[in-house]
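pasting for the record
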Amino acid sequence: MKDISAYVVGSPWHAVVAAAIFKKNSAAGVFLVETLSEPSRAGIIRVAEACGIEWIDLGNLSQLGIRNFSMARPIHSARALKQYTEDIKEKSKDLLNKLIFSRIYYFNLYSPITRIFLEASLYKSVKLIRVEDGVCDYFDFPLVYYPRYQRILKYILISLLGVQRYYSRNCGEVWRRTSDYYLFFPGKIETNKSVKSLFAYRNDILNVLDIVSTTPSDLQKSTCNEGLCEIFIVGQSLSEDRILPLSAEVEIYAKIANRYPGRALIKPHPRSSAEKLAMLKSIAGLNIVTTIWPVEIDLRIMRPLRIVGLWSNPIIYGRTLFGLETYSLAPDLIRSKCVRKGNALRIHRLLLEKFPRHYVDFRETFDR
């Protein structure tokens, strides 16, 4: 086979954008799936199958997560991480030898699985194209904050294992070989790459969302019809990313549910813990959206009056992409004493600077 495009996707939203590019290009393509969680993987596969795109499992990111390293069994954990890295290398080489890729579209440059695959591709005549991972692309710092001692331990560990180049933010030859960068807001970031606005694919993205959302059994899981949903909460991974204690994060959602009883929905983040899901279900007046597809499809179907969240993609893109009112809870959140030291304030300030028309304080409408 010739002229095959590979799309390295790690989230359902990646899959939607990749499918839009795939359809516009009208060329053969395959999704290479890196799994972050089972709900996320299920959403990616749903998009791929609905759009008639082949998919192959590339690897599981949890197997390479430093936070899963066990200090109680350090030798075992180190060997497991090293072995899984070698397994991904071999799988990448095998895929690159079996399938002749002309282009590789990738989203998360800082994923070790993506980096391993891209590094293996450097020995091939293939064009590398980076596609925006999300709002975090506009940050000049990692989204998730780790205390200094953990960063030091991580550096020592990956250096000893010889895998530091897959975790470093210095992307070296992979970034140098990347020719194009697709962004929703090209003017908001400085790059020496050839840039293209993803809003040029707006109609294609909306078309993919419509294709994926046509199964009646999934629609029945939505508890709110178009126009009847006053508040749609895009769930975050604040407790999982150690930005807030779990109880404090759930309290944010409960506050909105109490304000709009029976008229508020929440789509939990795919990485939500079982404990968080149980606590959300116990909140009176809050409906849980359980569809396995990307949250953008729920927004497309339900067209809620308002979308609220923190700094997830729909909060920043929803106004331009869907023509919906989007608001952030972050300005109020960062004043909370519960916010742990980290990047919350830096994220807030950067979004205010770069997206003043899209990053709108929810308090502006809360007391209307």
